[in-house]
Amino acid sequence: MTEPSFLREIRTAYDAVAADYAELLRDALAGSPFDRAMLGAFAELADGPVADLGCGPGRITAHLASLGTDVFGVDLSPEMIAVARRLHPGLRFEEGSLLGLDLPDAELAGAVAWYSIIHTPPEHLPAVFAEFARVLKPGGHLLLAFQTGEGQPRHLSHAYGHDLSLDAYRLSPGNVVKLLTEAGFAMHAQLVREPEGPEKTPQAYLLARH
């Protein structure tokens, strides 16, 4: 099967920015009480192995581990995985795609996709959510975070101090809820907060049960 071109663009872009991305966002959770609250609720609910899908340099993986979660990270970018392994040597990180996870059916008690669905064209989201449903056991929990909008792409040509070419999509929480429901999820909690600091749009957090 030929890899979709958008996956190659994501990998190339995040390989380029991996080290600077990790440094710039290293302490971001310290100033994000809503992020910590949603991750904390998820950590209490997920009773078993958890995957941080699109883990980047592993900052969310490490935070969940600090909360006592049995967690590992998966990312498309080899450079992000290399940074994550260097920064968090006690944790497990693997290369992988949200469209085809190298995990058995019903393997996970929980999965987190923390701003990692934002580069997936909306027409591919049903396949991504179907893959999330496949690897989660019945009753397993899924936590998503993303910027809100109507699915319109925003092309990035420079980010984290590097030139790159990458599309980012701002998603409608209602549309994402609909797609999750069609994939076999039931909503557990929803939160949309107003933008803070450099953010341009409200931020959404969706917690669903398989």
Automatic annotation (TrEMBL):
One of its GO terms (biological process) is methylation. Transmembrane segments: none annotated. GO terms for molecular function: methyltransferase activity. Residues 50-140 form the Methyltransferase domain. It comes from the Bacteria. The keyword Acyltransferase does not apply. Pfam families: Methyltransf_25. SUPFAM superfamilies: S-adenosyl-L-methionine-dependent methyltransferases (SSF53335). Keywords: Methyltransferase, Transferase. PANTHER family: METHYLTRANSFERASE, METHYLTRANSFERASE TYPE 11 DOMAIN-CONTAINING PROTEIN. This is Methyltransferase domain-containing protein.
